[in-house]
């Protein structure tokens, strides 16, 4: 809530003081605190947002490697870079998050959809339409396999791919894909699962 933004940093500072006093330098709570600092600064300073997001990634890599928090922190740091206009840096972090999501897993995994979409978005921003489309299509294929046709992740990915097609001169294919996605979002609509 934007009306309480000014109150957030002092609360986070107090939480850090409590963790410091408790001698708690490595718990996941410390990593969550760093992520919360990044989010709090996203309203006022992109430099601070990126700094805290990077600190969260480094913290989780050092103290909680292999936890799902590593991938989540990478995705947040990628989003911070994207907001700061560092599309290549964002793509690099999304690629690391994708590798983390695939580590030790055979076959499609729900954890790869967000990083694939993130890579697609950065490829488009960097002028690589083919790469963007390829990653959107891979994300959509995985989302369909893992979630099914009517899940929000699948529908959102369809809309994003449709938007890309529409923006790159394939208006009819883009419109069809977006209409298909919209129909799936309507309960009771006759859409194949």
What does this 3D model show about the protein?
With 193 residues, the protein is mostly helical. The protein has nine helices and no strands. It has helices spanning 5-21, 28-41, 46-63, 68-83, 87-102, 113-125, 129-147, 152-167, 171-184. 37% of the residues are buried. The mean pLDDT is 92.
What is the fold's blueprint, element by element?
Layout: H1 5-21, H2 28-41, H3 46-63, H4 68-83, H5 87-102, H6 113-125, H7 129-147, H8 152-167, H9 171-184
Helix pairs in contact: 1-2, 2-3, 2-4, 3-4, 4-5, 4-6, 5-6, 6-7, 7-8, 8-9
Question: Which short descriptors sum up this protein?
Answer:
elongated; 9 helices; mainly alpha
Low-confidence stretches: none
> What is the number of helical segments per DSSP (H or I, 4+ residues)?
9
Distance between the termini: 37 Å
Tell me the structural class: mainly alpha
Number of strand segments: 0
SSE run: HHHHHHHHH
């Amino acid at each position: 809530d934007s009306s309480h933004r000014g109150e957030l940093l002092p609360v986070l500072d107090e939480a850090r003081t409590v963790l410091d006093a408790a001698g708690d330098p490595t718990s996941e709570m410390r990593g969550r605190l760093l992520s919360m600092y990044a989010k709090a600064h996203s309203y006022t300073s992109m430099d601070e947002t990126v700094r805290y997001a990077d600190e969260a990634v480094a913290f989780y890599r050092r103290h909680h490697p292999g936890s799902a928090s590593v991938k989540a922190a990478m995705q947040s740091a990628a989003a911070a870079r994207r907001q700061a206009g560092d599309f290549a840096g964002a793509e690099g972090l999304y690629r690391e998050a994708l590798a983390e999501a695939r580590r030790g897993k055979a076959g499609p995994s729900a954890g790869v959809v967000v990083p694939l979409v993130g890579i697609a978005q950065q490829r488009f921003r960097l002028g690589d339409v083919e790469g963007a489309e390829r990653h959107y299509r891979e994300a959509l294929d995985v989302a369909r396999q893992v979630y099914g046709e009517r899940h929000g992740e699948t529908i959102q990915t369809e809309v994003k791919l449709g938007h890309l097609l529409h923006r790159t001169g394939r208006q009819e294919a883009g419109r069809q894909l977006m209409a298909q996605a919209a129909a799936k979002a309507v309960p009771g609509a006759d859409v194949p699962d």
